[in-house]
C-alpha cells in the first residue's frame, strides 16, 4: 500500500510561490446532487450530478516584511486570481499531479490569534471556473 507524508507541498497564488509560508494546503472539489426521483423510481431516491464547485483551504505563517506574505495577499483582496497546488515541490508528473484554476480572494485576516499564539493566517477561497488536474 503506497503511503505519503506531506513534507514539501507547493502552493502558488497569482503566480507567487507561497510554499515557504504554507503549513496546510487542501483542495476540495464537489458536485452538487440533483434529485431526479419520480414515481417510476419505486420508492428509491435517484440523483444526477449538477454544478461542480471547489475550494482551497490554506494556512500560512504570517510575515509582514516588505515583499512578504501580507504585502503579496493584501492587494489581491476582491480579485479572481490563479492558483496551483501540488503535494510536492518536485516536478509535475503522474505521482505528483498539479491542481490549477482560479480562486476569488474574498477574505484576508492579517492578524489572528491570542496572547502567545504564533502569527498564523487561515483562509479558504472558492474556486471560480474549471479546476484542472495535470500530470505533465
Q: What is this structure, in a nutshell?
A:
The protein has 136 residues and is mostly beta strands. The protein has one helix at residues 69-73, and strands at residues 10-13, 16-17, 22-35, 47-61, 80-86, 98-104, 120-126, 132-134.
Coarse shape: globular
How big is the Rg?
19 Å
Biggest pleated sheet: 5 strands, antiparallel
Structural class estimated from helices and strands: mainly beta
Proportion of residues in extended strands: 35-45%
Topology of this protein?
Blueprint lengths: L9 E4 L2 E2 L4 E14 L11 E15 L7 H5 L6 E7 L11 E7 L15 E7 L5 E3 L2
Antiparallel strand pairs: 1-2, 1-5, 3-4, 4-7, 5-6, 6-8
Could you explain how this protein is built, in words?
With 136 residues, the protein is mainly beta. The protein has one helix and eight strands, in the order ββββαββββ. The chain has one helix spanning 69-73, and strands at residues 10-13, 16-17, 22-35, 47-61, 80-86, 98-104, 120-126, 132-134. It is globular, with a radius of gyration of 19 Å. The model has no long low-confidence stretch (mean pLDDT 97).
Amino acid at each position: 500500500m503506497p503511503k505519503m507524508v506531506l513534507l514539501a507541498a507547493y502552493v502558488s497564488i497569482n503566480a507567487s510561490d507561497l510554499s515557504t509560508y504554507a503549513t496546510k494546503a487542501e483542495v476540495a472539489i464537489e458536485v452538487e446532487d440533483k434529485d431526479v426521483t419520480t414515481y417510476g423510481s419505486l420508492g428509491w431516491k435517484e440523483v444526477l450530478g449538477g454544478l461542480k464547485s471547489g475550494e482551497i483551504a490554506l494556512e500560512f505563517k504570517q510575515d509582514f516584511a516588505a515583499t512578504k506574505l501580507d504585502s503579496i495577499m493584501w492587494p489581491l483582496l476582491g480579485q479572481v486570481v490563479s492558483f496551483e497546488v501540488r503535494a510536492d515541490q518536485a516536478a509535475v508528473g503522474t505521482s505528483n499531479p498539479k491542481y490549477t484554476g482560479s480562486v476569488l480572494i474574498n477574505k484576508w485576516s492579517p492578524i489572528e490569534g491570542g496572547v502567545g499564539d504564533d502569527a498564523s493566517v487561515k483562509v479558504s477561497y472558492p474556486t471560480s471556473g474549471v479546476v484542472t488536474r495535470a500530470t505533465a
